[in-house]
Amino acid sequence: MFMNDILVTEEIVGSDMDALKAAFAVTYEPELWKSPDKLRKVIGDYRALMVRNQTPVNAELIAAGRKLEVIGRAGVGLDNVDAKAATEAGIAVVYAPEQNSISVAELGLGMMLSMARMIPAADQSTKAGKWERKKFTGTELFGKTLGIVGLGRIGFLTAMRAKAFGMSIIAHDSFVNPDSLLVSETGAELVSFGDLLSRSDFVSCHLPETPQTLNIFNGDAFSKMKATAYFINTSRGKVVDETALLKALKEKTIAGAALDVRAKEPPVAGELEKLENVLLVPHIAAFTQEGQERVVRCVCSDVAAILRGEAAKNFFNFSKPRK
Fold it and tell me: Residue 189 catalytic?
């Protein structure tokens, strides 16, 4: 055991983290992500860095981590990790590619139901002493068309659950083979992005943040949607042009939107927060007890394996460091 094995810069808790602390020398500073200068000064003493999505693991920090063997990201996205710089430095990057997928898919369905049946507004009205039954006449999911943008693991699980509600599934994903099980199991019809927007009653976004997906949901995209359609985003905030979305919601170009993620987190409260036809939650899609247990178990297991000289199972680049 080294004097300094693992540095944890965000809140990563659970029995698997407790076991990691018992087996290795772990420095647990869940607020350290707020002090990048301090982090850069101390990272050179550690073999492993464990983060969530708040710590900016950039090229400068990676260069300062002269002893780093592995970077563990407790989650699916690597938006805050410069994986290219880590790879060039021979540092293994491990993460949890699908461990919280069920949690995210379930939240997406919950958002669809909440908007279709106006559940949040009906709840607030009833708690205010009113009994406005006709005001909250909603719409069924049954028979509606769900457009999945990004038919990966989460998109697939969302589609399967929507299928059980009797929804028709169409999908747009440039990287999915038409013969894939993702298509055959969901019964999805693969269509163009524009076709999906114009035909869907609900559009659910499951895209990673890349230069190609940045602001893909812009004014032009929203203008192609039905006036009765709803937009759901549980993926990444920057795939949406929030100014264009605000305009579409205010002008009733679309019926409503539900957002778990924002372009900037936490966001500065603005016009979106004032609208009745938008549902906002604070990036909680992956935050279920079960999902987080799987995520922490996955990342702790792989970090421990690499520090023991063994191969990781859930890695982005290498199963072992190449330093």
Answer: no
